[in-house]
Amino acid sequence: MTQQTDSATEARKTWMGLLARAPDEATLALWEGFTDRPGFEWLRSPEVGGVMVRGRTGATGAPFNLGEMTVTRCSVVLQDGTVGHGYVQGRSKPKAEAAAVIDAMMQTAAADHVRENLLGPLEQKMQAVKIARAAKAAATKVEFFTLVRGED
Questions:
Q1: What pTM does this model have?
Q2: For 100, which of 9, 25, 26, 84 could close a Cys bridge (C-beta 3.0–4.6 Å)?
Q3: What is the CA radius of gyration of the chain?
Q4: d(CA 114, CA 103)
Q5: Are 46 and 134 in contact (CB under 8 A)?
Q6: What span, in angstroms and rounded, lies between the C-alpha atoms of 66 and 47?
Q7: pLDDT tens profile 38-78
Q8: What is the rounded distance in angstroms from the CA atom of residue 123 to the CA atom of residue 27?
Q9: Where are the extended beta strands (E) located within 60-136?
């Protein structure tokens, strides 16, 4: 693989990961407000299934089965032939459809427009939630200290 291919793959992983993890309401609200939606055909209509989530102890240990998770997936092809895939957490078929169409659009000339009007605001919303959650956790932080007694 060339470096250009590697960076394109990493960029795609980033936006697909964002779409997969984003809350349904936020994703669908932004998608509803997006007016430049292209026409598409289904390669695979949205379907709900389960996947096994694997983990590693300390990120380096032997892999083990952590548990199952529900996902929804679908695939679309735009009128220009660009293929997009959507894999999202949970059972939201509309979100999987939106993720697949957005994935396909990000591979076309419309990528900058999609990034500016969909992915950017979605990432900002997720970052705000992350900061709020961290602030709430920090408010419960307890610091312990020990005083040394001067006895011999």
A1: 0.82
A2: 84
A3: 21
A4: 10
A5: no
A6: 23
A7: 999 999 999 999 999 999 988 888 999 999 999 999 999 99
A8: 10
A9: 63-78, 83-89
For residue 8, give every residue at least 6 positions away whose Cβ sits within 8 Å of its Cβ, in sequence order, or none: none
Q: If you search the block for the tokens 């997006």, which residue do you land on?
A: 34
Distance CA 102, CA 37 (A): 9
Identify the pLDDT of residue 2.
Answer: 65
3-state secondary structure of 43: strand
Structure-block tokens of residue 71: 């996902």
Taking residue 78's Cβ as centre, other Cβ atoms within 10 Å add up to 19
Q: Specify whether the CB–CB gap between 110 and 30 falls below 8 A.
A: no
Provide the 10 A C-beta neighbour count for residue 123.
15
For 17-128, strand residue ranges (E) read 40-56, 63-78, 83-89
Q: Is 145 left (phi over 0), alpha (psi -120 to 50) or beta?
A: beta
Q: Enumerate the β-bridge partners of residue 73.
A: 47, 87
Closest-CA residue to 126 (of 34, 22, 14, 11): 22
